[in-house]
Amino acid sequence: MNWTNCTRVTAFILVGLPRVRGMEGVMHAGIFVLYLLCLMGNGLIIVMVIVDHRLQKPMYFFLSNLSLIDIGHTTVFVPKLLVNYLSVKNSICLSCCLSQSFFYFLFGVTEFFIITLISLDRYIAICHPLRYATIMTSGVCLKLAIASWFGGFFSILYQIIIVAHLPFCTSNVINHFYCDVGPLLKTAGGDIYVVEALGFLITVLVVMSSMLFTLISYLFIISTILRMPSTTRQQRAFSTCASHLIVVTILYSSVFFVYLRPTFKSSSFSKMKSVSLVSAIVVPVLNPFIYTIRNHEVKEAVWKALRRKTPGFPKI
């Protein structure tokens, strides 16, 4: 086919989530509730870190970055998903689709960098406590966070530029609930192998390096915990690490299943939607609760703020 003479697609149809007759309202309400929980949980962490000086520490600084990422990650596609789920015509313009894909992966890649920094912070705090204050200064933390955001930006920018110049002439139906690169490439004409190879390479480098660094950090952390003389300290540290590893395991497992594939043309995206939903909605909802549910400083700061706003509020 001569791609120079084809009529370029200007809008796509998002297939969305599978529809179960009679359950559309329940699924819509469920996604809406999860989105509200994500906004409230992550928003609360950001606000508390800003207003409470006791939480202005490296760990909470990185957690607030993670919360900002989770809010952005879900907001990129959930409002459109909710509108489309109740709409007859689930269309999205080409530029909107490319923008959605860019920001979705910007937040996604940056999340791996921030999770790596959280594991680094915990490693230094537990394994080198005497040097922690001199290593993890506010300036160093700010530079690391900025580097993570720029790393996420430049990791996905070139791939999106290439995708934007592909001839979308064969189909305008995207078999997903957002503009994921894989289903988007499946609608493209021309040679997409360079884009596939680049995307696969970025995924391997970012995800594998992040996972390896995080795994090594927690191995050293666990080794240090086991040498602690206090059983109480061991239990508290193990409890914190276990909750962190739950998030890491869910996130990395879903990404491995969905994105670590050499080719997208032969992939069945219908089977990946449920896994994508977990990593895109469930994990951002769980993050603020898992990272702070056993954290006494955060709970104390929240209850202190509630008591200040609500006279007569009970103490913990």
UniProtKB/TrEMBL annotation:
One example GO MF annotation: G protein-coupled receptor activity
Record membrane topology: Multi-pass membrane protein
Intracellular or extracellular location(s): Cell membrane
Main location class: membrane
Gene Ontology cellular component list: plasma membrane
Family, per entry: Belongs to the G-protein coupled receptor 1 family.
Record organism: Python bivittatus (Burmese python)
Domain G-protein coupled receptors family 1 profile, residue spans: 41-291
Membrane-traversing stretches: 32-51, 60-82, 102-120, 140-161, 200-226, 238-260, 272-291
Keyword Plastid applies: no
Top-rank lineage group of the source organism: Eukaryota
Protein name: Olfactory receptor
Signal peptide residues on this chain, from the entry's feature table: none
UniProt entry keywords in alphabetical sequence: Cell membrane, G-protein coupled receptor, Glycoprotein, Membrane, Olfaction, Receptor, Sensory transduction, Transducer, Transmembrane, Transmembrane helix
A Pfam entry, by short name: 7tm_4
Keyword Cell membrane listed: yes
